[in-house]
Amino acid sequence: MPLAGKAVLITGCDSGFGYSLALHLAANTDLVIIAGCYVPDGDRTGADSLDKDSGGKIHVVGMYLAYIFFKIRNNFPASYLQT
Predict the structure, then answer these.
(1) What is the DSSP string of 37-81?
(2) Phi then psi for 56, rounded to 5 degrees?
(3) pLDDT tens digits, residue range 38-63?
């Protein structure tokens, strides 16, 4: 399947596996890479490093997934949350 023009969203890109995966895909594919980085209290250290190391080929966005999931969970009807 041709990857040109397709996009991938990777979370956890401020360090570790997500960081390495985003750089690898940017260097070796034609995918549009959207990298979610945790930016606690405005600290963009990981996000800025990824942007620099990729030469600007990665679209870096700040993400607060734990907060987003918490908000979604608290707004879901109870019937969806039963396990």
Answers:
(1) EE-GGG--HHHHHHHHHTTT-EEEEEE-HHHHHHHHHHHS-HHHH
(2) 80, 10
(3) 887 778 888 899 999 999 899 998 87
Please state, in angstroms and as integers, the Cα–Cα distance from residue 56 to each residue in 40, 70, 75, 82, following that order. Answer: 22, 31, 36, 43
Strand, coil or helix: 7: strand
Beta-sheet pairing, 7-10 with 58-63: unpaired
Output the six-digit token pair for 74: 């608290």
Contact 61, 30 (CB under 8 A): no
CA-CA distance, 62 to 44, in Å (whole number)? 8
- pTM value is 0.72
